[in-house]
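Just curious. Invent one:
>
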Amino acid sequence: MKIEKGMMVALGYGKYFRSDNIVGIEPIEEGRGPGRRTKVYVDQLKEPVTASRSQSAILSDLVQIPKTVTRTVEQHQLLNDILDTISEVNPILRSIIRDQGNWDLDQLERRIRELLKEDEEPSE
């Protein structure tokens, strides 16, 4: 990932700075709240600018994470959420769902675990 020169990054409440002029970001720990989420250090300014957006949102804009990457992360999180939910379905209800709805939760759970395991394995 790289910072695109000259691209404008929104800090919230109408504040914008060029991405290549931002030299650091830091979450505000104390006194954090609406309009006060992140300190943004900008080249040529002595004091950091207070941004209303989170450091992760600003960082995402700075490095322009490709939508395919963010989409993949969202899909991975969704699969984990589905797996957690399926894992909590008791065996009797699983049997009813399989018999009445023709939907095998055991098979679905295995397939999701396989997909998630494949994501964890390093590619060679």
Q: What stands out?
A: The beta strands are 8-12, 15-18, 22-27, 38-42, 49-51.
